[in-house]
Amino acid sequence: MGSTVTTGNSEEKTWGGGNEPMGASYGKLMMWFFIVSDALTFSGFLAAYGFSRFKFIETWPLADEVFTHFPFMHGVSAPMYYVALMTFILIFSSVTMVLAVDAGHQMKKDKVIIYMFLTIVGGGIFVGSQAWEWKNFIKGEYGAIETKGGSLLQFVDKEGNRVALADFAATLQEERVQHTRSNGSWFVGEDALPTYSIAEVQAGFEAHPDLLIRTEVIYEATPETKVDAKINHDLSKFKHKTVLTREESVVRLAQAAYVVEGANLVRNEYGSKLFADFFFFITGFHGFHVFSGVIINIIIFFNVLLGTYEKRGSYEMVEKVGLYWHFVDLVWVFVFTVFYLV
Amino acid sequence: MSHEHEYVSNTSRIWKVFGILSMVTIVEVILGILKPDSLHLSHFLGLSLLNWIFYGLTIYKAYYIVYAFMHMEGEKSALRYAVVLPVIFLILYLLFILLTEGNYIYGVFKDSTIKWNF
Fold first, then answer.
1. Which of A22, A105, A168, B46 has the fewest Cβ atoms within 10 Å of its own Cβ atom?
2. Which residues are the signal sequence here (chain B) (predicted)?
3. Model pTM greater than 0.80?
4. Whole domain around residue A153: which residue ranges?
5. Quick one: A327 and A301 in the same domain?
């Protein structure tokens, strides 16, 4: 037992060894310092996100327009509800984890089993929700056009509501064959072809005179923008994306270079390219932590079932995985704020 | 000795903290959906007041997760400060440098003719 749970001596032998200046066992201390380093890793990512966001502060996508899905509610714009639910699930699984630790201190094996099980279930639901969130993000909803200069154009009707490419794009008799690696002289393929070609989007836009283009730029009511004749001042609201006049929309659409549907690591229909990269990287890294947390919890859960810690006389292992699990929750609190609220 | 023997079961505190965390999350979500103009459109030290509120509530939640759930409040002060202080200091330092630099590069792009989307 002494090898797994170290206990210090309480006698006055300061220099005699076996002291625990921090009053915690080796394993727990190392878990804490692992958490410190992991916390710094995550803060590095989030700070990098902040850097890029400050760099593109005028064009960054607005979170409540991106994450608007809720299961079984199609076409209903429900910003944040789902991610709030995910947050609750994770906080609740943290509660059951801390209850398991608490029961472990009292050597109540049955209670530890129940609470550990609930924690694992909560973690599983969270990972599944994140997968669903990713699916919606990758699939996209409206589609957009990327211009030659790399900026993104979205479509709105005359009330300023978003319009999907599928609602207006014309169907042209044109054939475009997917270019594959085997046909390329340098074995270079291309991305999957979008549903609509640029010509189809442009023709559809011509045919619907009510449509307008919304740029990435966040509208600020400065003296210069107020007199800008290219901006539709009725639809552009302060701190929302700028809507262009019809004439300017036609000019911008002529510079189209790509049809963008959904999101990947190169471009996405929500706006700044880096936005999707950071979303995938940070929520993915966090999701990976949750996933490995669930796996570790399952291992410890079986150890509890087998009575390993009962025999050892200490449930400190449950406490250590508990620390890791709470840390995952802690990171999510920040990811939630940075990606969904601010 | 081992602190386990000093451990006091405190399920009522756990549920209380759960209540606090839930309430704060609900407040955040309501504010995030309503985005009251008075908070959202105001500016204070580079961010809107609403965003400052969000960050404040986040740190409030983080405090409860670390101190109650991770049971930091029951640890020796040596462990407490060895873990908390380096993290706080390094994060503030990193944020200060990166956000200042990001803001500076924004200015460079805005005032020059460079157009480079990366």
1. B46
2. none
3. yes
4. 144-175+187-261
5. yes
